[in-house]
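Researcher: Here's the sequence for the chain we discussed earlier.
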Amino acid sequence: MKSPPATPLSLTALVTSLAALATLCALQHIPMADTLVYRAEGEAVVQGTDLYGFTVTQWELPATYPPFAALLFVPTTWLPLPALKLAFLIGNTALVPLLLHLSARLTGLRARIRPHHLCAATALALWLEPVFQTIVFGQINLALVCLILWDLTRPANAVGKGLALGVAAGIKLTPAFFIAYLFLAGRVREATTALAAFAGTVLLGALALPAATVDFWTRRVFETGRVGKAWIVDNQSLQGLIARALHEAEPGPAWALPAALTAATGLWLARRAPAHRPDGVLLAALTTLLICPISWSHHWVWCVPLLALLIAGGRPRLAAAVAALFLARTFWLLPHQGDLDLRLPWWQQPLASPYPLLALALLPLLSTYMSTRTEVPTPRAEVDSSHGRSRVPRRLGRP
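Model: Thanks. This is the structure I predict for it:
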């Protein structure tokens, strides 16, 4: 049966949302600082200069990705800067409906999604804080999540399944956590392919940029301070939560021990999730965001598949509450100039760390309540045969 076209109301909502976003970007002269970093990395490759020795923009942002990513950024040097910013703006905006589609495929919602649903969902998703920040910073989070979800939702016998995940890990290291998840879940062939692809990105980077590769893997990868200050409200990881709660810029063991426990617990819970269900993927994603030393708020674009999972699991009220949390931007409303992030009173702490608090609450929920009491439609593609800084203007808040 042919799907009905999008309704005028949903189309109006989408057009209005897109127009509002474009107007805001034009009026505010959005700097898209991360795009400038990517461009500088590409220029360093082309010109043969030190990949990790520069900083750009008034916020002195350095390169933080592996050398392989810098190779992929070379095409950013082919366009004038205004055209490059426009390309990132259009590209990231176009990735939002793709992410919604892949999220629906992951959770089994695809059969229930109609064009007017996709239009309305895109209109709303553009304003979820992580999605919005990714767009205005010119980040690559949406592209990476789409790459990961596309790979994880392919049929179990698909040629090269796991390859895209390994490439994503080679661009930005955090997706490597999913490789560990796949091994523990018994999806060995897929995990091995991903690991081989990741190793291939490291080898390619070493062949093209040997000095930068040695520098990154022996030194820069351990310098989390290069990424930014862990205690600012931009950082929505477990370390950020603990640093602000304890009023300590470097919480040390007070963060490391809970992070290790969270990593072990998250992997164990993901391992327990049936292989054919999406719960394990979201558990792995939330665990990754929690345990990373720094998870900027825009890294939480995983909120989109999370919302799809809650809707698929028959929890519309919970989904609405989670959507409201990601729309609220509470941490940007708090005093955060200078080091005020470290001096927030106790009653402001939940407002400063809504994302990690939500993830900590959802880890047990997704592993028990969602898995045992709801019937999430099984996406066929998930059945595996082995189972049968003070960065940019405080993210538009701090100069």
